[in-house]
Amino acid sequence: NIIFCEDEFLLGINQEFLQHNDFTDIITFDLSDSNEIKGEIYISIPRVLENATKLHVDRESEIHRVIFHGCLHLCGYKDKLKKDKELMGKKEEEYLKRYASRSST
Predict the structure, then answer these.
(1) For a disulfide at 29, which of 24, 40, 41, 59, Cβ 3.0-4.6 Å?
(2) Where are the strands (E) in the chain, listed by range?
(3) 82-103 and 59-74 helices, crossing angle to 10°
(4) What's this model's pTM, rounded to 2 decimal places?
(5) Nearest-CA neighbor of 63 among 36, 43, 42?
């Protein structure tokens, strides 16, 4: 499930479940079992739109990047260590390019 929400809602989740007191663009909960990938991806639309402006990318691409980011977490990718974050970024770009090429045909 992908749940689009406001900053304050995601901040509450961040505080309650992760004990973090800051805004974020995405939180992913992995609910997978041994047979199936399942999860909840919470995305703050205001945060994603602000990030798009800061990064000078179009809004749609940034929303897709964040969705891919959450899906990559559900597939086991991490982003806490520098090397993991770099790999995650490469994978996000790979899937964005694939998505863009399929969308333009």
Answers:
(1) 40
(2) 2-5, 26-30, 39-44
(3) 120
(4) 0.92
(5) 43
